[in-house]
Amino acid sequence: MALYDYVTQEQLAGFDKYKYSAVDTNPLSVYVMHPFWNCVVKFLPTWLAPNLITFTGFMFLVLNFLMLAFYDFDFTASSAGHEHVPSCVWVAAGIFNFLAYTLDGVDGKQARRTNSSTPLGELFDHGLDSWACVFFVATVYSIFGRGESGVSVIILYYILWVVLFSFILSHWEKYNTGILFLPWGYDVSQVTISLVYLVTAVVGVETWYQPVIWNLLYRDLFTFMIMACSFTVTLPMSLYNVLKAHRSNTLKHSGLYEAFLPFLSPVLLFVLSTTWVIFSPSNILDLQPRIYYLMVGTAFANVTCKLIVCQMSNTRCQPLSWMLLPMTVMVLLAVTGVVTNETMLLYVWTAAVVLAHIHYGISVVQQLSGHFNIFAFSLKKPNRD
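Given the sequence above, the corresponding C-alpha cells read:
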C-alpha cells in the first residue's frame, strides 16, 4: 500500500501503454561503454533485481557527497594554506564514481537479461539520476574549491543550475516528442571526472592551481566546458528536436504553450532560490554553500520526477509544483529579516525538502509496484491471495 497516491488513475493507465524509446549516438557510449557494460552484466547473478543495481549506483554518489562533506564541508580544503583532502579519499571518489556510472549503465541490460523490464524501472532510474546531479556537482567542486584559484560559490551555484537544466531538457524533449535523446555530455563527463579524481590523488590539488595555457586556469576550463556543452550542444539540439516535431505536427502535446509548460516550475524555483541568494541579509550561500546546493538540487529533482511521470504516462504536466508555495514563504522570511537566523531556516527547509522528496519517491515506487504486481527490489512475484 502506497504512503500516498501521487500517481493518478489516468497516469497509471498511461504507464500500461508505455513503450521505451531512446536514441544514443555518442561514440564513447556506443563503441566503448556499451560493449564494456555487456561484459559486466554477464557477471551479475540472474536473481539480482535491476532496481537494486540502480539504487546501489546512486548510493555510491551519495557516499561520495557525504565523504567529501566530512573532509571538505565548506569547500575550502583545496585552497592554499588549508589541510587538503587525503589522497585515499580521491582514490575512493574516483572508484565510487565509476562504479556508479557502470551500474547506471548495466541496470537496463540486467532488466532485459532477466526479462524484468517495467516502466517502474525506467522511472526509478531517471528519478534517481535527477537527484544525483547535485551530488555529482558538489563532489566535483571540492577538487577546485572556493579559494583564489578555485570557483566562487556563486559561480558554482549557476553552474549547478546549468547542469540541472541540461538534465531536464532531455526529459522535456521526450515529453514532447516521445523519444529520449541521450545527451553526449553525460558519458564524457563521468569518465573524465572519474579520471580527474584519480589524477588528483596522485598529483595533488595544487596541480589544478596552475594555468593550462597562458593565464587560463583549470577552473576556467572546467566552467567553459560545462557552459559550452550546454549552450552549444544540449540546448540547441533539444530546441531543434521539439520545434521540428511542432512543424511536422507530431508534438505529443498541442501547441507551443503546452510544449513549454514543464519549464514553469523549474524557472520559478530558479527565481526563488536566486532571490534568496541575492537578497540574503547574511549571505547565506557563502555561509552554507553545501546545504544550499543540496536544497536546490533536491527541490529540482522533485519537480523533474513529476515531469518524468507525466512524460512516461503521456499526460499533461501540471504547471506548478506544490513545493514552490512553502519555499516562497521561506524566501520571504529570510530576505525580509523576519527570521534572523538564516542558517537555521535553511537547515529546517532543506530537511523538509529532502524528507518530502523521499516520501514522494517511496510513495510512487510503492504505488507502481502494486499496480504492476511486482516487488521494486526483488524479481520474485508478490502473492495475491
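Strands lie at 22-23, 180-181, 211-213, 216-217. Try to locate this feature in the C-alpha cell string yourself.
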